[in-house]
Specification:
This protein has about 725 residues and is α+β, with helices and mostly antiparallel strands. The chain contains 17 helices and 30 strands. The protein has 2 domains: about 260 residues, putative glycoside hydrolase family protein from bacillus halodurans (Beta-galactosidase, Chain A, domain 5); about 425 residues, Glycosyltransferase. The longest helix has 26 residues.
Amino acid sequence: MPVGGGSIGMNVWVENGDIYFYLSRSGSFDENNTLLKQGRFRIRLTPNLNTTHNFSQRLVVNDGYAVISDGNISVKLWADVFKPVVHVSVDSKKAVAVEYEYHNWRYRNREIGKKESFQTSYKFGVPSGVVTSHDVITPSDCGITFYHQNPDTTIFDATVAQQHLLAYKAEMYNPLKDLIFGGKIFGNNIKYSGTCDGIYDNTDYRSYNLSSRSASKHHELCIALTDNQGTVAEWNNKLDGIIKAINVSRDSKSSVTWWHKWWQRSYIEGEGEAKEITRNYTLFRYMMGCNALGEWPTKFNGGLFCFDPSYVKSDFPFTPDYRRWGGGTHTAQNQRLLYWPMLKSGDYDAMKSQLDFYVRILHNAELRSKVYWHHGGAAFTEQLENFGLPEYDEYGTKRPDGFDPGLEYNAWLEYTWDTVLEFCQMALDAHSYGGVDISKYVPWIESSLDFFEQHYRYVASRNGRKQLDDNGHLVIYPGSGAETFKMAYNPTSTVCGLKTVTDNLVKYLSGIGADSTTIARYKAMSSIWPDISYRYVDGHKVISPAVVWARVNNTEPTMLYPVFPWRMFGVGRDSLTVAVDTWKYDPYVNKFNGYAGWEQTNIWAACLGLTDEAVKWNTLKLKNGPHRFPAFWGPGHDWTPDHNWGGSGMIGIQEMLLQEVGDKIILFPAWPKSWNVKFKLHCSRGTIVEAEMKQGKAHIISVYPKNRIKDITVQ
C-alpha cells in the first residue's frame, strides 16, 4: 500500500513476516532522466511478526500513516509533510530486537538494456556505453548515508546538441547538472552490522545493515532525504539542517493536522453501488496528496509508487527504477488528467508543482521559437522534458536533411503544440475557484498564446501572400488533433483551447486592472482564432475534429474536447444537442470508446448529462484495480500504478455530481437517484458546495458563500 506526504512516497508490504518498503521522492532525476528510487528497506523483528493471527496492515488515510500489527507488535510508518523525512516506529508489549536493511541495486554501474531504456529520456534505445551510474553509500556507527550524484554532462547536453541549441546552452535551465539526491538512515539504539549481497525479483543488490544494540519495547528509525545542485559538501550541509530540525512529536502533529485539512476541504462518499468507486476516488486522491508539496509534479506513469516491473509485465525483468515512458519526460496529454480534478477538490496547493513546472522551462521553450523560426512565444511540445525540450528519441534521431529543426520527426507528435493550453486554463481556473495568486503564471500564459499567433502567421507568410483567411481568421495548418488527427486544418481541440484561454485571460486581466494595451492585444488575438468545424453524419450535425485531416494516428476522439476540457458544449447549454449527437453518431467516437488509462469516455458521458452511460463508464474506470491495493490501476497505455487512469476517474465522478454553466451551479447532472452519495466540492467564484443524494432526494447541506445558493439548481 502507498504511504507518503509532502514529496515522499513509500510502497509498503509484508513478506514472510518482514516489512518491506520502496522509498521515492519527486525530483530524483539521474543523468539519463530516470526517476530513481532512494532504495528498498527491510525491517526484521525478533520475535517476528505473526502474520497468521490478529494480523492487520492498515492505511489510515485521515492521518496519513500506515500501521502493521499482530496484536503484540505494532509498526507505524509515516512521512513528514513539511520536510523530507520518513519515520518508522516499533512498539511491542514485550522487548523485541530489530534489524534494518537498506537494499541498493545501484551499488555498481548498471548497463541499460534496449527495452529497459524506456525508463530514460533516450526512450527507445540508449547510446552504447550509457549506464545508470552507481550511488555512493557510506556506513558509520550512527547510520548510513547514501546519495546519487549526476555528472556535469547528462541527457540534457545530448538533447541540446541534437536540437541545435548548443550556442545557447549556458543560458538554458538545466535541472540535471550536478544534481545530488539521497539521504541518511539513523535512529535510536542502533549500530551498523555490515553488508551482504542478494537478489530480489531478478535484480541483484547490496544490503547495508543496521541492528538494534539491545532488545526494547520501543524502536525508532528516521530516513532524512534532500537534494541539491552543487557540491557534496553543500548537499551534506543541507541534509544536516533537515536532521537538526526534526522534532518527532511536533512534526507528527503538524503532519496529521495537514492531512485533516486535506480531507476537510472536499470529499465524495458513496453507499451501495457507489461505495467502491467513491472509495477508490478517495484512495487515489490520497496518493496525489503524498506529493502535494513537492517541487516536481506527480508523474502520470506511477507517481511515487512504482514497484518491481515484473509484477506489471512478466517479461520486464528490470530494476525497481523502471517505468515506461520515462522519468523526466512529462507527457502533457497524460499529466493534465492528474491536475484537472484538483480544482473541484480544492487542492490548489497541490497544483503548484505542475504550474511551476512550466514557469521553470519557459525560457527554454521561448528559445526554441527564437532560434528555429525567429519569432516570439513559447513552443511547448507534447512529450516534454523537465528542461523544456522535446524528448530525445521522439525529436527524431534519424531526421532527413533540411527538416525543420523546431519540429519533432514523429508521426504521433508532429505539430502537437496545444496541450500547454489546458495547464494555462488550470491556472486561470485556480484563480477563479480559489483566489490563487497567479501573477507569476501570466507571462507563461501570454507566451503560450503568442506562440500560436506568431507561428501560424509565420507559416502562412512562408506559404503564401496573406496571413489570414477571407474571414480574417488565422489558419492553423499544419495542426494536430492531439496525437490522432494529423496534418489537420484548424483542429477543433486547438481552436477551442485558444479561444477559451484567450477569453479567460482577458477576463482575468480586466479583473485585476491590467494595462489596457495588453487587454486590447489579447482581445484582438481572440478575434482571429478560427471557428469550430462541424460536419454531418447520417443527417446529424456533429462536431468535427478539424476542417480536414490527412490521417488518423491514435484513438483520441478530439471532437469531444469542446465538451471537456473546454466546456463550450454540455449540460445547460444550447449546444448540448450537437454534442450529444456527436457522442451518438460520430464513427470515431464510437470506435474509440474506452476506459483504460487516459481514455475519457467516462468524463464526456458525465459532462453531457448521460446518466446511464456515465454510470457505466465511471464504474468501469474506478472499479478495483488488479493489485492488492485497489487504486493501483494499469498498466493501461502507460504503466502501473496508472495515475492518469485515477485522475480521469476523479474527473468523471466530479462531473456526475456538479457542473457549472455561467453563474449557474448544477447538482447531480449525471448521478443516478438510486445511488446514495454525499459530497463537498469546489467551483468558481470561491464557492464550496456540500450536498447529498439520499433515497432518491437531493439535499443541499451547505453553500459558501451563502449568497450563491440562489445560483444552484438540481438536475
